[in-house]
Amino acid sequence: MDRAPSAALQLRQLPPTSSAHPVGEVSFSYKENLIGALLAIFGHLVVSIALNLQKYCHIRLAGSKDPRAYFKTKTWWLGLFLMLLGELGVFASYAFAPLSLIVPLSAVSVIASAIIGIIFIKEKWKPKDFLRRYVLSFVGCGLAIVGTYLLVTFAPNSHEKMTGENITKHLVSWPFLLYMLVEIVLFCLLLYFYKEKNANNIIVILLLVALLGSMTVVTVKAVAGMLVLSIQGNLQLDYPIFYVMFVCMVATAVYQAAFLSQASQMYDSSLIASVGYILSTTIAITAGAVFYLDFIGEDALHICMFALGCLIAFLGVFLITRNRKKAIPFEPYISMDAMPDEGAG
């Protein structure tokens, strides 16, 4: 006699299936978004500084009679330390914020490089070239900063725990399997045209990079999330999916670097930076939306504003890199006169 009321009571006590977050969880998710965004911004900024430090070290040694190898200088080792620190910050950011928020924040590297270049670049400009050379770069930096602000403000608030069960569930879901099928077919077609038909167009090469990169960031988020949970006491390293994701992360990153190296031998670095950023960000956000369901439960306004932030950041990066001076072999891009007079170390 009491079974029917008891069953009804149990049904009423079940947690809601809606994707909407409770008030406390929403505030916590925004806090996590902010932590992840700050880690990513810090990481990209430090990596940009590190790369310029190491390049400055190479230039100083090439322009002097110092017989030391670059790896025997303090400046180069400082750059390496900062690069590792920055990469660690970017890696950790994936454990806190949705993939769709972290990926576009790589625009910070472009902004930082542009500012460092404007300060230290060795260029003699005429007044008529100032608008073309510098004002567009400043406008691009402003747009990229506005786009970054919109991305952080209207980013999705998907904060699913990166447990082995959840990652496995997403990995075998039919939307992701369908997405993977399309991506594999597209990758094979592009690779065929690139290898067999000598299609060395920059779009073809950077699409290969972007397709690999989308899998890299998907696996990075899984590995980073499972490591953070393990550090917090919820051990995830005994799940085989962790090692599957780790191997995929390393493999796709290595092949991605190989294609980028080939592209850098044929095209200007500024063109690679702008086109690569747009393609990689677009495909990576798509992969995150399919695999991690980043935008499930988000209202149309947030999605539209997030997309607007991406477009503004894309335009900013394009303007920053559009008129960057092409590198001339053996010409220092940093003026020796602009640097403090100190030893290479």
UniProtKB/TrEMBL annotation:
Species this chain originates from: Vulpes vulpes
Family indicated by similarity: Belongs to the NIPA family.
Its membrane topology: Multi-pass membrane protein
Name of the gene encoding the protein in the UniProt record: NIPAL3
Domain of life, source organism: Eukaryota
One Pfam assignment: Mg_trans_NIPA
Recorded GO CC terms: membrane
A GO MF term: magnesium ion transmembrane transporter activity
Transmembrane intervals: 34-54, 75-96, 102-121, 133-152, 172-194, 201-229, 241-259, 271-293, 299-320
Protein name as it appears in the record: NIPA-like protein 3 isoform X2
Subcellular locations according to the entry: Membrane
Keywords: Membrane, Transmembrane, Transmembrane helix
InterPro entries cross-referenced by the UniProt entry: Mg_trans_NIPA
